[in-house]
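Q: Joint fold for the lines below.
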Amino acid sequence: MALKYALLGLLTKNEATGYELNQQFKETMIHFWSAHHTQIYRQLVKMEEEGLVSSQVVHQVDYPDKKVYRLEDKGYEMLLQWLFSKEILPSTLKDDLLLRVSLFQLIPADEAIAFLERAKEQHMFGLGLMEKWRDSHFPEGEFNQEDLGEYLTSEFGQRYMQHWIEWCDWAIQVIKRTKEKGSDVK
Amino acid sequence: MALKYALLGLLTKNEATGYELNQQFKETMIHFWSAHHTQIYRQLVKMEEEGLVSSQVVHQVDYPDKKVYRLEDKGYEMLLQWLFSKEILPSTLKDDLLLRVSLFQLIPADEAIAFLERAKEQHMFGLGLMEKWRDSHFPEGEFNQEDLGEYLTSEFGQRYMQHWIEWCDWAIQVIKRTKEKGSDVK
DNA sequence: CTGTACATGTAACGCGTTACATGATTGG
DNA sequence: CCAATCATGTAACGCGTTACATGTACAG
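A: Joint structure:
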């Protein structure tokens, strides 16, 4: 159900095509969400059937026609209701990389360390992108009231990346220490 | 595909019933994964068809019969192949709570603060559970080589909770500050 | 007498992922 | 000439969630 609210939320800022909504997902929601364009198109069709959004086809000369979606009152009401009423459940992770980490006892220590070092690089790269994004959107940490949500979640994303990187360093040290102790561990 | 590997991974430790695998998910994989028992039963049937695991029905007198699954060589090989070969992609979050945070500009500041305070409590509760679990499984931070993966991922889970809690404190302060400045923000 | 744990599932539906399809314009 | 970008989708399949179904034993 949450993709629906994500799309309604984006449409509170501007009317947009499915394509543009997909771009916005990749750009701003990367901090805490992801969605494929196929999901977005599917969801938009459903939401129009339910009367939450409406669409208008815009003819273009040099480009293919596009379909612009606009938020309807019913959609806005549903969004606000969700924002106020839904209960708060602790968030759960679901992470492929950590699943592999949880089985590190099955592979050699060197493999495990190499894995963590590559994972660290990936997250450092991600952090770099987020920092750049924040600098261009909120220079000097300044933000407008209408961007409050984005400001808060982008900080979350950045801290999450830092947490990952720090944990990688910690985990690498742990494995190196158990390696030194050698076979007398266990 | 990942649930398959999670189950194969658990079965490297011991043979188990679907019920027990579900318990183990809730207990140890809570740090980075979740799965419903219905998924687990469905996946086990498929894995048996593929010859990755085998099962044996054990009759019981006072309880219903149970079906014990055991890892087969083919399953173990597939698991190791996955552990070694699959490329490393940066992890992506998907979090309902953050989706709501990203729309905080649509609700009053007091509501937003109340939301964050409840979210903080939830994560403090989660942290407490994880700390208890770690103390009982790894007293004094000691662990056996065969538990390396669990040791590393449970640290990740704990740090993740701490990161959440710290971010909540930060976000609450940000909102309080914009509230003070009042209408001259924007 | 009620709820919880044990133990295993089916059915229905919705979300997530991958592959495929089409076809124009612009930049290197 | 090739790749990328703009723009919109269908189809197939697998994963995730919720509701329902069945029946016993034990603790409070």
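Q: Anything notable?
A: Helices of chain B lie at 2-13, 18-28, 37-49, 73-85, 96-101, 109-137, 148-181. The first helix of chain B runs from residue 2 to 13.
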